[in-house]
C-alpha cells in the first residue's frame, strides 16, 4: 500500500520537518539575557537581603571588633590594643555578671526547656480544640515584652501581688520576690519562661505530630506506659528538634537583658541579677566607655560561637 500524497492527506504537510528560515539564527547570548530578565526580580530580592544583612548584622560585628581595640577621647580615636579587655577583666562586676548569666541559663534550661516540651506533650494528647490551645499558649509571645514584664512586676509586688496572696491562702508568709537575692533570679526566670515558651511549644508540637502513630501502637503492644513511650519513642524521634532548640535556648538565655532590667533595675539586690549584657549596657550608656562595652560583647560572641561549634561537632559525631 502506497503512502498518501499531500493531495490525499493535507495534514501530512504539517508533519513534514521544517527548515529554519534564513536570518532566524538565534544569538547565543539571547538565552542568557532571557534568563536574567526572568530572574531579575529574584536577584533584586536577594541583593536587598544581602544589603540588609551587611548593614544591620555584618557591619555592627566588624565595628564592634574594631571598637574593642580602640579608645575615644575628646573625639580622637586611638588604638589601645588589649587595654579594654584588661579593664573589663579587672572589673569586680565581671565575674559576678558571668556567674549570674550562667545561673540564669541553668535555671532557664530547667524551666524554659522542659516546660514547653511537657506542654506540647499535653496538647498533643487532645483530639479536639488543639487550635484554641495553641493560640492560648502563644498569646504571651504576641504581647509586648515590656507589658509582660510589668505584669509580672505587679504579680511579684510584696504588698498586693497575686503570688503573695496565694501564699497567704496556704498560711505561708509573704516573700520579697524581687528584693530578696535568693529569689530574684528565680523570679526573673519564671517571668522569662512564661513570656517565651509559646514559640518553643508550637515547634515541639509540630515535631510530635510528625511521629508515626505505628510506633506508639507497637510500644503499647509491648506493654509500654506513658513514660516509657515518651522516653523510647517520642524523644528519639524528635531528637534533632530538641538538640536545635537546646542550642537556641542557651544562646538566647546568655543574652538576657529585658527581664532583669525591667524587673529588678538590672543589677538587682546585691547584684544578684547583673548579667553580661546588662554590664555591656552599663559600660556603653552609663560609663560612656564604648571600647570596654565592645570588648565584653566580643568576649560573649567568642564564647557563644565556640559553644555552638563544639555543640554542633558533638551532635554530628553522635549521629555518625
UniProtKB/TrEMBL annotation:
This is Sugar ABC transporter permease. InterPro entries: ABC_transporter_permease (IPR051393), MetI-like (IPR000515), MetI-like_sf (IPR035906). Keywords: Cell membrane, Membrane, Transmembrane, Transmembrane helix, Transport. It comes from the Bacteria. The chain crosses the membrane at residues 40-61, 102-123, 135-156, 184-207, 240-258, 290-311. It is a multi-pass membrane protein. CDD domains: TM_PBP2. Residues 1-25 are annotated as: Disordered. The lineage of its organism: Bacteria, Bacillati, Actinomycetota, Actinomycetes, Kitasatosporales. PANTHER family: ABC TRANSPORTER PERMEASE PROTEIN, DIACETYLCHITOBIOSE UPTAKE SYSTEM PERMEASE PROTEIN NGCF.
